[in-house]
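Sample intake sheet
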Amino acid sequence: MLQGIFQIALTLLLIIAIAYPLGRYIARLFLGQKTLLDPLMNPIESILYKIGGVQAKDDMTGWQYARAILYSNLVMGIIVFLLLSTQGLLPLNPTSLTAPVWHLSLHTTISFLTNTDQQHYSGETTLSYLSQVLGLGFLMFTSAATGLAVGIAFIKGLTGRPLGNFYVDVTISITRILLPLSFVGAILLVILGVPETLAAPETVTTLEGATQTIARGPVAHFEAIKQLGENGGGFFGINSAHPFENPNPATNLLETLGMVCIPAALIFTYGIIAGNLKQAWLLFGMVFLLFTFLTFLTAVGEFQGNPLVNTLLDTPQPNYEGKEVRFGWAQTALWAVTTTGTMCGAVNGMHDSLMPNGGFSTLLNMFLQIVWGGQGTGTAYLFIYLILSVFVTGLMVGRTPEFLGRKVEQREIVLASVVLLVHPIVVLIPSAITLGFADSLSGISNPGFHGLAQVVYEYTSAAANNGSGFEGLGDATIWWNLSTIVSLLGGRYVPIIAILLLADSMRHKQPVPETSGTLRTDTLLFTTVTAGIILVLGVLTFFPVLALGPIAEAFSLASQQ
């Protein structure tokens, strides 16, 4: 037990140590200040801008920024869909895999395009090396960079700055953040035992005399951007539980930090750009405390184990179902909360086997989307809650709400409401339809309370751009592939458009002079109020689902002891 607590505590301390320096670097980068990579990357970026016809100094409005995202994503999606659909004719296909069925190719393309990486297939038996590396790997960089660009544009707009140019922002997000970190991460993973090869799978004879084919491939660089970009889609079917993706506790620590470093850092990026590090530290502390609470809630459940199994064994044992022995209960619990908090979606154990505590924590993370939130967009969600908190507290004292010296009016509240309302719409409606025809559509493998959670988890994961799943669910069907596409698209692009329009609206507002009656947002009291608003708006919206799923499952287990 002490070893598990030490592993969790060490990771938490490293998150604190990494977040501020990385956040400061990102702020300097997007404020146009000098960085160490300027001599190397400036010439490369200039060439890319010339090829693309991009004027680096041309700022965009909110609508222009949103249209640039939609148009570029559409083109990238068509290219990757065609690549997947013709993979049987293309090279780097050592096992001669044919193209997936059209609805699986479509779901996979949109899933990776939206930074969700929800997988209804096993990578090693479905996709060629070319499809994984050139197709999905390309989208892993661009989708993560898109989210990061949106987050930065939102921060700029809130602080009265021009939003910037999408094509410039997405380029430097790749060349200055994702690519350098992924390169270093891939080298470290290779050193620690993750393979990087284009060789075909190896066929060997086992000790029992049977023949076994061992899949391998260019895994290390794929794994690096999978974690850093909060993508989460595994090269192999069992994701980071596979020993070739995540072979030991050292790689597990590295990949855990990879998931959380950028979204945690963006809170400090905001503080530096806004000139208010005090508020950044308060927000970081709020998110960190919620993250720590959910981590230990999940860890306690896994350590205590399944009471029904413990009764049979006549001794308390941790819950080891669905876990890799090399990680154990502690690192699996920490990873589960981190991957659903950051919207990464990678797994090092099976979430379907988590105790109800873990099911509650993982679902809650994806309902809230702010612990630590998705790449860039999660930071925006956090400040959406801040704006709503300002609005609510302003109503209480009878003052026009203000945030960062700019008035928050009807247009901003409507756009903020759209951001928060689209999530329950694209989660609860398709979940209700699927559960209404459970025998023919749902694919539930574990009836009862857990079965309901399986269905809701899948749509929540799609809408939150997470991609993980309760993998006992039979989701490799045309219904699941097409219905989750609605959640994937709605959960990604509707909030992005609303976020950019809100940022553009705030940018054009005249600053209001601060007076003795101005509500300060960089106080412990206001941060506490914000936490309360998050719980009221986020948790209560989905509380019936939590009550009928993991909470009811916990009471059911307790009653059967």
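Comment: The beta strands are 202-205, 211-214, 402-403, 406-407. The radius of gyration is 23 Å.
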